[in-house]
Amino acid sequence: MPETSNLSGQHILLGISGGIAAYKTPILVRRLVEAGASVQVVMTANAHQFVTATSLQAVSGNPVRDDLWDAAAEAAMGHIELARWADQILIAPATASMIARLATGEASDLLSTLCLASPAPVSVAPAMNQQMYQHPAVQRNLASLEADGYRIIGPDSGDQACGDQGPGRMTEPEDLLSALAQHPLSGDDAGSLTGCTVMVTTGPTREAIDPVRYISNHSSGLQGLAIAESARRAGATVILIAGPGVPSAHWQIERRDVTTAQEMYEEVHNSLPAADIFIGVAAVADYRPANSEAQKIKRHRHADSDMKLALVENPDIIASVVQSGQVKVVVGFAAETNDTLNNAREKRARKGLDAIVVNDVSDRSIGFNSTNNAVTLIHEHGEVAFGTQPKTVIADQLIRELTPIFTAKTAQKL
Ligand SMILES: Cc1cc2nc3c(=O)[nH]c(=O)nc-3n(C[C@H](O)[C@H](O)[C@H](O)COP(=O)(O)O)c2cc1C
């Protein structure tokens, strides 16, 4: 069972748009009410094709809203009042169409209007056919939402109602509950890092072999992006140093884009005097080609022998941050394929890190290139494992768990 006790007493506004997964929403409402939350449901016109307002009213104990122009509902609780009532908004399922409306800032129906009018954090649980989900327009819209501070939960991957297999299944109600319960702005965490500057590195680096080829890795940068976003929501000033291909970040996050490990090293050290906390999530290449050729290497030059690539070591960014003594807390990440915990414990000790977060990248369904992750946080006071969950939820949990360490070590600043 997910830990949901901090949902007790919360006002949750559940928005339901017109996707097949809407049939799961009465169970979701039931679980929220069981966890002690007050729930108001807002449906789009198309959601009525998939679930009845009668069921949702029965389980929530509140009338269901679906129309901006409902005079009686407006008289009872105006839509701006409803927007202010919410401690959190969850849109589940979020259709491709709803995601597009939110991404463009439309206020063309009650639900999209509420999202613009509410100061509450909005979580979005996409649910759609895998082909739709992977369409660049949907991905672009989701990236815009993330950059605007929306939290994206899921989707899961697997069998779909249409018979397809792949990403696009709505995150299950229990996991949605657990995600809402973990939201840093839902409890006492909002503002817990106010006054503190956190630097996060994320993504891969690329080390050029010649003008068209490079050495890199599978890192998507999503975990570091989510950590930067969680730190921002906890009130920190955030500097994000991002490798290539990392999706856009919230406008309040100070972002610097780099390509190589050497560039990342330089950007980190340029900005380090402003930082209190350093979280190194980036998958920095340990080695780079000794010589990056100015011209594309031609196959015929090596036709009669195997080609050998000489590599030289890149700077160890995290070790250099520890050695500089310029920040008060240093958190590292380790991606391991074997003997995961022992390797991470050894790495934390060897590098003198305050904490290390380790994930087992031999499981390809999580970690690299996935929206889910499962990690263990190792710090001087103990170890905490976080099971498979969306990276955004893991990020919230890590920030919450690390905050006492941040606060203790940066006491004079916070
Ligand atoms: C049977 C059926 C199932 C559908 N399921 C989904 C879905 O799971 N996800 C989605 O994005 N759209 C789905 N659609 C399309 C949406 O219902 C359609 O885009 C609609 O305009 C969404 O409106 P709304 O976002 O205002 O609720 C489905 C349509 C039909 C006919």
Question: Would you kindly provide a written description of the structure presented here, covering whatever features stand out?
Answer:
This protein has two domains: 5-181, Flavin prenyltransferase-like (Rossmann fold); 197-409, Rossmann fold. The protein is 33% helix and 23% strand. It has helices spanning 25-34, 53-60, 71-76, 79-85, 96-103, 110-117, 130-134, 136-147, 173-181, 222-233, 261-271, 317-324, 340-351, 391-409; strands spanning 11-16, 38-43, 88-94, 122-126, 151-152, 156-159, 165-169, 197-202, 207-208, 214-215, 237-242, 254-257, 277-280, 287-289, 311-313, 329-336, 355-360, 372-379, 382-390. The relative contact order is 0.10. The chain has an eight-stranded mixed β-sheet with strand order 12-11-8-13-16-17-18-19, sandwiched between helices. A five-stranded parallel β-sheet has the order 2-1-3-4-5, with helices on both faces. Strands 6-7 form a two-stranded antiparallel ribbon. Helix 1 (25-34) crosses helix 9 and helix 4 (79-85) crosses helix 6 (110-117). By secondary structure, the protein is an alpha/beta fold. The protein starts with 10 loop residues before the first strand and ends in a 5-residue tail after the last helix. The radius of gyration is 23 Å and the shape is globular. Residues 17-21, 44, 46-47, 95-98, 127-128, 132 line the site of flavin mononucleotide.
| Radius of gyration using CA atoms only | 23 Å
Task: Tell me the strand order in the biggest sheet.
Answer: 12-11-8-13-16-17-18-19
Average of the residue pLDDT scores: 90
CATH H-level homologous superfamily name of the largest domain: CoaB-like
Q: Under the CATH scheme, which class of the largest domain?
A: Alpha Beta
- CATH-defined fold name of the largest domain: Rossmann fold
Number of helices: 14
Number of domains: 2
Q: How many strands? A: 19
Quick one: overall form? globular
| Stretches with pLDDT under 50, minimum 5 residues | none
